[in-house]
Design goal:
Blueprint lengths: L1 H26 L5 H10 L2 H25 L1 H82 L2 H14 L6 H68 L22 H12 L3 H19 L8 H25 L6 H25 L3 H19 L6 H9 L1 H21 L7 E2 L1 H7 L16 E2 L5 H20 L6 H29 L5 H29 L3 H4 L7 H29 L18 H20 L2 H24 L8 H24 L2 H4 L10 H10 L10 H7 L5 H10 L15 H21 L1
Antiparallel strand pairs: 1-2
Helix pairs in contact: 1-3, 4-5, 5-6, 6-7, 6-9, 6-11, 7-8, 9-10, 9-11, 10-12, 11-12, 11-13, 13-15, 13-16, 15-16, 15-17, 16-17, 16-19, 17-19, 17-20, 19-20, 19-21, 20-21, 20-22, 22-24, 26-27
């Protein structure tokens, strides 16, 4: 028995340990799934089931023990519960009584509540009706206002009213009014669109017709501004010339009349209304298309009208067009874009450039070209203020520069020809006013001292005439080149270039033709030479005038390298004119000297008085030199005098060498010596009388007769054979040539045979002189 008890206790003790573990897991609320899964996996679920049953039995025992512990308390709770049930029944009866009384009272209140709710519903309906009526009244009032605005042509307020109707009263409960609005609003908008389109069309027609006036005003303003600038520059130059360097700030007030007034209100309204209608893009396209068509029409030149007569209207129309477009671009919002304006301007530049090139190519008068050019530059000045690039248009003027100057040169050459042909080659006689306009004006005065009047000028009428032509040419050239986009220095170079062409190719050519045609006499040739001298002097005036016209400072022109080629060319022509004059004088002298053919070279007696031909020669030389002194420079007079006396010298020598003189005697040589002395005396008087001795101190006109003088001295010498002595020859006969002396000495045959009876009283001396002459002849023959 003890053994069984001992065994059961062991078992119970073992079960108790496992059961305690299991109960702890269950009491902790842990998951038993892993334990169950493990039991099945090990194949021993019965053991777990047995343990669970043991746990259940232990719990039942615990419950029973707990019930036994709280039994009395449970009996007391049941008694209290029964008391509560009794109280509940009493409360239920009381509630039923109170509910009955409440039902009786609530029935009357419910009836009155239903009446109140019905009243509230009626009130709400009335309020909604009033609100709807007020809304309809406001809508109808807006409709009336819209109709009134439409009838008065006030489209923007009408459109605002329509927009307000659409936005604020779109869901009007009154179907009739809502249908009316939905039906009439599109009609009203369409009417407004058509009306403003009509107004914009009228404005387009109007603005095209007024563009010409706008352009003319703008060009007028540009011209006035240019004139003000020119006046300002002129005052500045005058102040610089007199040394007044006082600076002041001139504030120029802008006149109200200088502001272009352009009415763009119809365009603004039309565009804004289209924007409000939501069709702004449509109007922008419409405006750009129509203005482009107008531009194409404006750029067309009427084939039946001469461009010279219509160019101002044509250009003013284009100026007005682009001024309007600039105003639209700056003030009309996004109606017009800068790219669109640029595209229209490029189109205009291309067409206008082609038109000007064609028109310039057809013009054959320089003044016509200048007239159009001036207006084109004003066209450019007017549009440049609005930011347009007028460079390509002004370049057209530059391309036509050569043609203009060719036409201008042709016209000036014709005028120069007329001036030269119609010149009487006589000195001008002037009063004081004529002196100022013909001499001082062109810097032709030879002295700063005012002469006595009437003043006899050293030049003829062609000089001031050609100066006026050249001055006019410079002015016209500068007028064409100025405001053409070139700098002042650049177009001064062009003016100087074309001025050279005028003076060299035209003036100089005409003068050379006059000189070379051989139809001028001595006085005319002398006057032409004098005229060239003054024209050469006038070149400095021409250069100064060109520089002044071009705005070039005087200090630049004063530089030695700044000159014109024409001055040197005219100097060359002047020298040629002097040569021609000298030849003419010599030819005339040759006619007088031809009288030597009538001289008796074998005369028996010595003539004490001056021969006739020499008298004529002296008178002619005196006349020539006196005339030359009045109109020619002193150095030229000196050259002419030298040439005249050298010609006389050469003529004597040629006469003695020529076959016309077969022989001559000592008496004839003595006659020549007398004439030569008179001529030398006359040469000295002329040289000193004209003041040449003060300038040319080393030689005079007498030196030009040195060869004849040495020949006469040799023939009259007592020892002619000394000529062959080099020392004596170099000292006394250095101007003589051996061959000429040999030829002349062969003709000198003064034999004592009665032919020279007048020399018979000098028989001994003559014999010695004759022997010496024979020796000289012999030695010259041997030498030659």
């Amino acid at each position: 028995m003890n053994a069984k008890t001992k065994s059961r206790n062991v078992t119970e003790n073992g079960d108790t340990v496992e059961d305690s573990v299991l109960m702890t897991l269950i009491g902790n609320g842990e998951d038993l799934a892993p334990m169950v899964r493990h039991s099945f996996q090990t194949g021993k679920p019965e053991k777990l089931l047995y343990q669970l049953k043991n746990v259940a039995k232990r719990k039942e025992v615990e419950v029973e023990e707990l019930c036994k512990l709280h039994y009395e308390e449970f009996i007391v709770a049941v008694d209290e519960l029964r008391g509560v049930l009794v109280d509940a029944d009493a409360l239920k009866t009381e509630l039923a009584s109170d509910n009955f009384r409440l039902q009786e009272i609530g029935s009357a209140l419910l009836s009155r509540l239903e009446d109140l709710l019905e009243s509230y519903s009626i009130k709400k309906n009335i309020a909604e009706a009033v609100k709807t009526s007020r809304t309809c009244a406001e809508v109808l009032d807006l409709c009336i206002k819209c109709n009134r605005h439409l009838s008065e042509g006030r489209f923007y307020p009408a459109l605002k009213a329509v927009d307000q109707i659409e936005k604020s009263y779109k869901n009007i409960p009154v179907k009739a009014v809502r249908n009316l609005i939905e039906k009439r609003v599109p009609v009203i908008k369409n009417h407004i669109e058509k009306s403003v389109c009509s107004e914009s069309n009228e404005w387009l027609v109007h603005i095209r017709s007024t563009s010409k006036d706008i352009g003319q005003k703008a060009i007028g303003f540009a011209s006035s501004a240019r004139q003000r600038n020119e006046d300002l520059l002129a005052r500045q130059k005058k102040a610089e010339e007199v040394g007044d360097f006082t600076y002041s700030l001139d504030v120029e007030e802008v006149e109200e009349t200088s502001v272009l007034k352009i009415n763009l209100t119809p365009l603004y309204r039309a565009y804004y209304i289209h924007v409000c209608l939501g069709i702004g893009d449509k109007f922008r396209e419409y405006y750009y298309k129509n203005r482009t068509l107008q531009l194409s029409s404006d750029l067309q030149v009427s084939p039946g009208q001469h461009f010279l007569g219509s160019h101002q209207t044509y250009l003013a129309q284009i100026v007005g067009y682009f001024i309007v477009e600039d105003r639209v671009l700056r003030t009309a919002g996004d109606l017009l874009s800068a790219n669109q304006v640029e595209a229209m301007w490029e189109t205009a530049v291309t067409k206008l450039t082609l038109t000007l090139e064609n028109q310039f190519s057809e013009m054959d008068t320089a003044s016509h070209l200048l007239l159009v050019k001036d207006y084109v530059t004003l066209f450019g000045a007017a549009l440049r203020q609005y930011g347009y690039d007028v460079g390509p248009i002004l370049k057209t003027l530059t391309n036509s520069r050569d043609k203009y100057h060719e036409l201008l040169l042709t016209e000036c050459k014709s005028q120069i020809k007329d001036a030269v042909i119609n010149d009487d080659c006589k000195q001008m006689v002037m009063n004081e006013s004529e002196y100022q306009s013909n001499v001082v004006c062109f810097h032709l005065q030879t002295s700063d001292i005012m002469p006595a009047f009437p003043y006899v000028a050293p030049f003829s009428s062609m000089v001031p005439g050609c100066c006026r032509i050249a001055r006019s040419f410079i002015k016209d050239s500068v007028n064409y080149l100025s405001y053409g986009g070139q700098s002042q220095t650049n177009f001064f170079d062009f003016v100087r270039k074309y001025l050279d062409k005028l003076l060299i190719d035209d003036l100089n050519e005409v003068i050379l033709t006059t000189i070379q045609n051989g139809s001028t006499d001595v006085s005319q040739a002398m006057q032409v030479a004098a005229n060239i001298s003054f024209l050469e002097r006038a070149c400095d005036y021409f250069l100064q005038t060109a520089a002044k016209q071009c705005g070039i400072p005087a200090r630049i022109i004063a530089r030695p390298q700044t000159t014109i080629t024409a001055k040197m060319v005219l100097k060359t022509s002047r020298d040629e004119a002097y040569v021609t004059l000298s030849n003419s004088v010599n030819n005339k002298l040759t006619e007088y000297l031809a009288l030597t053919e009538n001289v008796n070279w074998t005369i028996d007696d010595v003539t004490q008085h001056k021969s006739d031909y020499m008298h004529e020669v002296v008178i002619y030389i005196d006349t020539i030199l006196s005339a030359a002194q009045q109109i020619l420079p002193l150095d030229v007079v000196y050259k002419i005098g030298n040439g005249v006396f050298e010609h006389v010298n050469n003529s004597f020598m040629d006469t003695l060498v020529s076959d016309s003189v077969k022989r001559f005697t000592a008496n004839a040589v003595m006659g020549v010596n007398n004439d030569l002395k008179n001529l030398e005396q006359f040469a000295d008087e002329q040289f000193h009388g004209m003041g040449l001795s003060e300038v040319y101190k080393e030689g005079g006109f007498r030196g030009c007769l040195l060869e004849v003088r040495q020949l006469v001295n040799l023939l009259l010498s007592s020892q002619p054979e000394n000529f062959m002595n080099p020392t004596i020859r170099m000292k006394n006969y250095n101007a003589l040539d051996h061959k000429k002396v040999g030829t002349i000495c062969d003709k000198y045959k003064d034999a004592p045979d009665g032919l020279f009876g007048s020399l018979s009283n000098r028989g001994g001396k003559q014999s010695d002189q004759k022997k010496s002459m024979d020796v000289l002849k012999k030695r010259l023959k041997e030498f030659n």
